Amino acid sequence: MTQGDSESTETRPEGMGAGAALVIRTRNSEYCFTIVDVAEGVGLLSGGRLGAQKHVAVLARPEQREVEQPDWKAALRVGSRALFHVEVGGTMKSLVTSVIFEIVHVAGA
Fold first, then answer.
1. What is the C-alpha separation between 83 and 68, in angstroms, rounded?
2. What are the beta bridge partners of residue 10?
3. Which strand (E) or helix (H) includes residue 70?
4. Which of 9, 39, 42, 103 is deepest in the core (most CB within 10 A)?
């Protein structure tokens, strides 16, 4: 992967290809969300409380708590929090980041 030069205040993963990654920096943590399946909105999330291990995850809107209704059109915004539905130990859990201060798009290989 090569680092892209795009830093944005709002990012929508739906327009990115498989293999692209978003580095999400918060005050307390850094996360990496790598897109695996664009059509289904599935990616691999690592960082923060998850550590280096990658977990299957779906980005959702912060107001959307239902795991059954993921919204791939959700946007990440600087100054807000991200909500991911993450598979941990065979069950889905919600992970909410602290406030995002930087989003960097890393192009796929």
1. 14
2. 77
3. none
4. 103
For residue 109, pLDDT over 90 is answered with: no
**Within 10 Å of residue 95's Cβ, how many Cβ atoms?**
17
- Cα–Cα distance between 33 and 40 in angstroms, integer? 14
Identify the DSSP state of 75: -
Amino acid identity for residue 49 in this structure = R
Domain total in the chain: 1
Q: Tell me the mean pLDDT in the region 7-35.
A: 82
Number of H helices, E strands in the chain: 0, 10
Total Cβ atoms within 10 A of residue 19: 14
Look at residues 54, 45, 53 and name the one whose alpha carbon lies nearest to residue 97.
45
Q: How confident is the model at residue 73 (pLDDT cuts 50, 70, 90)?
A: low
**Cα→Cα distances 90→5, 54, 55, 93, Å:** 36, 13, 10, 10
CA dihedral 67, 73, 76, 77 (to 10 degrees): -120
Domain that holds residue 32: 2-107
What six digits make up the tokens of 76?
A: 């990440």
